[in-house]
Write a structure and sequence with these properties.
The complex is a heterodimer.
Chain A (H helix, E strand, L loop, with lengths): L10 E10 L2 E11 L4 E5 L6 H8 L7 E6 L2 E3 L4 H6 L2 E4 L11 H6 L13 H14 L15 H14 L4 E5 L7 H16 L3 E6 L2 H7 L2 E6 L2 E6 L6 H9 L17 E11 L5 E11 L3 E5 L6 H9 L4 E8 L2 E2 L5 H6 L2 E4 L3 H5 L6 H5 L10 E2 L2 E2 L1 H14 L16 H13 L5 E5 L7 H16 L3 E5 L3 H7 L2 E6 L2 E7 L5 H10 L20 H7 L2
Parallel strand pairs in A: 3-8, 3-9, 6-7, 7-8, 13-20, 13-21, 16-19, 19-20
Antiparallel strand pairs in A: 1-2, 1-4, 4-5, 9-10, 11-12, 11-14, 14-15, 17-18, 21-22
Helix pairs in contact in A: 14-15
Chain B lengths: L1 H4 L3 H18 L2 H24 L7 H22 L12 H27 L4 H22 L16 H4 L5 H8 L3 H19 L1 H11 L1 H6 L4 H28 L10 H11 L4 H23 L4 H13 L1 H23 L20
Classes of the chains: A alpha/beta, B mainly alpha.
Chain lengths: ~525, ~350
């Protein structure tokens, strides 16, 4: 641990309380961070981490409490104040403008000027390059941000804060969208920052990461600090229990699967994106009844289009999709569903639910036109209501009533509504697209259990997820998708995380610099050894 | 009609191109093109100002029309109160200058309404623009009928560049284009270049582009999104006001009902054609209105040879189509552009989306 001797701490937050109508988001939270310290803030979604950081960054006004920097009380009314006090924030959803260059993004709001009107671009460029070198990465200031990989965009965000001379750096879920290799690299940058005396607040819900990088860990639950730990004196189970408030099983017991005949088969499938590019380029696989096939891949490698082609939301240009032996390639969505295809879409609010409709109607969206929910053209509200009550109980959807609009539920409960709707039917095959994105530990546990249950009931499940951990935990087999192709299929029980991470990042080919700013320097790997690991 | 059939197509197109180069290069068509393009270019600058910061403004038409009326009436009143001889430069009088100032003020006033509705109230920006268009048309037509002015404050005069300049080989016509015009038309090129440079080289420009693409990102680095949008919409109002003043105080010297005749929308098309850049929009304005100017050119200096015979043939066969074709050409081009030939992919990402600080959860 690199904790500076001199008190007071770099940052102290004392008794921060923030109320929203009906909720106390932060209830007398105390937090202090020393110079050179990496302090992890751990908590479930909705625990109040983000609110606390919004208070620190001037995006929310606390109702009570005070903030001290280097022992002096400060008022932070807006982000400009926070920046002036040396606070930098790397948001979970990057605050970068894709069409602008790296330099323009970094300069924005803290412009280096040649005169009162015009920017001094060459000076800015020079400073950005210099700053990057200090922290061990070379960035092309003139590259457009949209051409950079996620890992590099993150570095731009960090540079953005450093350019403003941030001494306290908040990283909100910095690894959420990174491959394991990128995570390693970002961790190296974070350690280097701390070594230079920066104070880092690291927000995450990934327990092993927190244990790996943090000097200290503060756990928040329901707006309160429920514990503070040193990594040396705690473990994942302890942290999970603190975070959730009860013992949680982190990894579901997936038991043994008994794969039978193929139920969902994709042959030489080619699909074009909205922009007309072929993003699924001749994909072959089959999901057998009673198994989970996981598709791993960095977001944007054709997974979305693949899922849409299988579920009927998008036409494929070539190839065949078979469901239980039948060619369903040209079928409509409804035909596919009636033939036994279930689908939990990746964007639950956009495609999964009608947010303004009551839960009851959302629960019958796939069957509302059939008996007993309809008689002729007449909707049978009583039957729907009864069904809803039963399903809500069975799937443990936390809601005051079946009549509440789906949009008012928490993310976890919204997802449970979709899961309830899809899982409560007899299915031959089920497509799960990012089934637990953004959910809390408790909901993830529940949904994973349900998926295992459905598998054991003989459904073939195709699981697409950007969360590699989820893929590794659930899949019987893992297919890695890279640039529209399946580059490897490995056994899910013996798969190695680093190996899959490398396949996701490079497609199994030797890592190469792709552009001046390019992909990051991957740890050297022999492509043959990677291939050797595939089954 | 036999005459038409005898013409080989390619030769005919070549003839037409040669004629175009001749007529623009030698005659006095070039300044006419700039004159026609002036309100379009100014309107497009208004659009660029709005949309680059994330506010859709389809009310440019109404802003122009209202400004045109206010500019005209102000100039008229001042003229009647303090009659003055036209000045040496551009034939400017206090009345005309007061009219331009009033036109700009009117443009800014309506812009303020649009800004308030679309930024503060977060109303639908298309509706806001539509309201402005309908209200401006109704109000100016009504007032124009109520106070029927028979007098006029006159117009600005075109500058007369020295003959040596205009007769320079090769670029003479270009110099003539930008000098043998009135003050507002002359200012267009300057304004276009200033906005272009400012947008891509200045702090204001960087912030404007950022706010139009991703206002939240701008907010998190301490930029006041709301204030910036207000400011840009108001500056846009200056351009729309100037365009209106041009119509009544430089181009015609009178006010007619609905005299903008869709120019605000052509301006939007020019902006899209120019991919939201001032220079591109100016190019679009010149192209659109150049097509109309061809009609003028043909009337002033009819082409000879096959082409002349061909045109004369059409004029005889379809006189009404012939007489209106070139006037309608800019509208036709507008439809083609708006139908997506240029594509909307380059629009600022946050265009038309009101900004609301997310309530923290």
């Amino acid at each position: 641990m690199s904790v500076a001797q001199s008190p007071p701490p770099r940052l102290q937050m004392r008794g921060i309380t923030k109320r929203f109508p009906g909720v106390i988001a932060n209830d007398k939270i105390d937090l202090d961070v020393k110079a050179g310290e990496i302090h992890a803030l751990l908590g479930e979604n909705g625990a109040g981490k983000t609110t606390l950081m919004n208070v620190l960054f001037g995006l929310a006004r606390p109702d009570e409490g005070e903030i001290l920097i280097d022992g002096n009380p400060v008022q932070i009314a807006d982000p400009a104040d926070a920046i002036a006090r040396g606070i930098g924030m790397v948001h979970q959803h990057f605050m970068l403008i894709p069409v602008l260059t790296v330099a323009e993004n970094i300069l924005l709001g803290a412009e280096t000027m040649a005169n009162p009107i015009f920017l001094d671009r060459s000076e800015a460029r020079r400073r950005i390059i210099e700053l990057g070198k200090r922290f061990g990465f070379e960035l092309d200031p003139d590259a457009k941000v949209e051409t950079l990989s996620v890992g590099w965009q993150q570095r731009v965000e960090i540079l953005k804060a450093l350019y403003r001379q941030a001494r306290i750096l908040v990283l909100d879920e910095p690894t959420a969208t990174l491959t394991p290799q990128e995570t390693v690299e970002v961790f190296a940058v974070i350690r280097r920052l701390a070594a230079e005396g920066h104070s880092i607040i690291f927000i995450s819900h990934k327990l092993y990461e927190v244990l790996e990088i943090a000097d200290r860990i503060t756990v928040i639950r329901r707006g309160q600090v429920v514990g503070s730990r040193l990594p040396s004196e705690t473990n994942e189970d302890d942290l999970a229990a603190l975070m959730v408030g009860r013992q949680v099983k982190l990894a579901v017991d997936r038991g043994t699967s008994h794969p039978a005949e193929p139920v969902l088969t994709v042959e030489n499938l080619k699909v074009k994106s909205d922009r007309g590019q072929e993003v699924v380029r001749g994909v072959n696989f089959s999901v057998r009844a009673g198994e989970i096939l996981g598709i791993a891949g960095v977001a944007g490698n054709g997974q979305d289009e693949l899922v849409e082609a299988i579920t009927g939301l998008r036409r494929s240009t070539e190839g065949v999709v078979r469901l239980a032996g039948e060619d369903i390639t040209g079928w409509t969505v409804r035909q596919r569903r009636e033939h036994g295809l279930g689908y939990v879409p990746g964007d639950r609010q956009k495609y999964g639910l009608v947010l303004g409709f009551p839960i009851s109607d959302n629960l019958v969206l796939t069957q509302y036109y059939k008996s007993p929910f309809a008689r002729g053209i007449q909707k049978q509200d009583a039957a729907i209501e009864q069904w809803a009550q039963r399903t809500i109980e069975e799937f443990d959807i936390r809601t005051p009533s079946w009549a509440v609009p789906a949009g008012t539920l928490s993310g976890g409960n919204q997802q449970k509504v979709i899961v309830a709707r899809e899982f409560s039917r007899d299915l031959k095959a089920l497509v799960l697209d990012q089934p637990t994105r953004g959910l809390d530990v408790g909901s993830i546990e529940f949904i994973h259990k349900q998926a295992i249950g459905k598998r054991d009931a003989g459904t073939g499940i195709l699981l697409v997820s950007a969360e590699l951990d989820e893929i590794l935990e659930l899949s019987d087999r893992i297919a890695v998708m890279y640039r529209g192709e399946i580059v490897a299929v490995v056994d899910g029980r013996t798969a190695n995380k680093e190996e899959i991470g490398l396949l996701m990042a490079t497609g199994g080919r030797a890592p190469a610099k792709e552009s001046p700013t390019g992909t990051s320097s991957q740890p050297g790997a022999d492509p043959d050894t990677i291939r050797g690991g595939t089954s | 009609m036999d005459v038409l059939l005898d013409i080989p197509v390619l030769g005919f197109i070549l003839q037409f191109l040669v004629y175009l180069v001749q007529v623009i290069g030698s005659g006095h068509i070039a300044p006419i093109i700039l004159g026609l393009a002036t309100p379009i270019a100014l309107g497009a600058l208004c659009g660029v100002m709005n949309e680059r910061s994330g506010v859709v403004n389809i009310g440019i038409e109404g802003m122009m029309l209202f400004s045109a009326y206010v500019a005209f009436m102000t100039a008229l009143f001042v003229h009647q109160a303090f009659p003055a001889e036209p000045g040496a430069l551009f034939g400017a009088t206090p009345a005309l200058i007061a009219g331009v100032v009033a036109g700009i003020a009117a443009g800014m006033l309506i812009s303020l309404l649009h800004a308030w509705l679309s930024i503060s109230v977060r109303a639908d920006q298309i509706i806001s623009g539509t309201i402005i268009n309908i209200t401006a048309l109704g109000l100016t037509s009504y007032l124009n009928r109520l106070i029927k002015p028979f007098d006029s404050a006159g117009t600005f005069q075109s500058f007369r560049p020295p003959a040596g300049l205009v007769n320079l080989p090769g670029i003479g016509w270009l110099l003539e284009m930008f000098t043998a015009v009135g003050p507002i038309a002359m200012s267009v090129l300057v304004l276009v270049i200033i906005t272009q440079v400012m947008l891509f080289r200045s702090r204001w420009g960087l912030r404007t582009r950022a706010v139009g693409e991703h206002p939240k990102a701008a907010d998190t680095v301490g930029i006041n999104v709301i204030a910036l949008r207000y400011r840009n919409v108001l500056i846009g109002g200056v351009f729309a006001g100037l365009a209106g003043a041009y119509l009544t105080l430089e181009a015609t010297g009178s006010f007619q009902n609905n005299m903008t005749a869709g120019r605000g929308f052509i301006a939007l098309a020019a902006m899209i054609f120019g991919r939201w850049t001032p220079l591109g929009a100016f190019g679009g304005a010149l192209l659109f209105m150049g097509s109309q100017a061809i009609g003028v050119a043909i009337r002033l200096a009819p082409p000879s040879g096959d082409l002349g015979t061909f045109l004369a043939g059409i004029q005889q066969a379809y006189p009404s189509i012939y007489n209106n074709f070139f006037t309608g050409l800019p509208y036709l081009l507008t439809i083609i552009v708006l139908a997506g030939v240029v594509g909307r992919s380059n629009a600022p990402a946050a265009d038309g989306k009101p900004y609301e600080k997310e309530s923290p959860t």
